[in-house]
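Archive entry. Fields below.
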Amino acid sequence: AQKVTQAQTEISVVEKEDVTLDCVYETRDTTYYLFWYKQPPSGELVFLIRRNSFDEQNEISGRYSWNFQKSTSSFNFTITASQVVDSAVYFCALCMDSSYKLIFGSGTRLLVRP
Amino acid sequence: EAGVTQFPSHSVIEKGQTVTLRCDPISGHDNLYWYRRVMGKEIKFLLHFVKESKQDESGMPNNRFLAERTGGTYSTLKVQPAELEDSGVYFCASSPGLGRTQYFGPGTRLLVL
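PREDICTED_STRUCTURE:
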């Protein structure tokens, strides 16, 4: 069975703190893709990053970084020096080569307080 | 380049009525997907078009839902008759190829009273 678990329902931090959002996935497919999407208060889903199962290289984009570890089936997302504008719901998602639909986690609501 | 657009942004209807949601994908994207998030639940896949053909409709909840993509461009999702449990946010996404990144529209918020 394919599944994505985001155990953190809600996280609250003070501005400038670092915060890590956890994502654990399950799949038997050998080829798959992992995604993070951001849903700001306005409601749209904004694509942040896509990783392939055969590429475990971690990635950094400005204040955002992602840690992909196949050994623990995790794809965690870290925001460094958080800002109020980072407040949103963040979704982790899985897509297999055998079926191209996205399987979403339940989302983590991040609140960054000034 | 214009992103995925959806219409209407909000819809409030009474139980038993019909509602049609529209999605215009990014130009050139052959793959179009519908998802929905009902209150308190996860975002769930409904179906996937490749051009005008339904590639996967395993997520469609029942035969009250009908999706079309005539001509392989925009898509419509009709709910007839609507039930209370159909309330939620309906998202459309498109991608240029299989396994490629799916880009989402702003969603349609449907409320069935």
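CURATOR_NOTE: Chain A has a mean pLDDT of 94.
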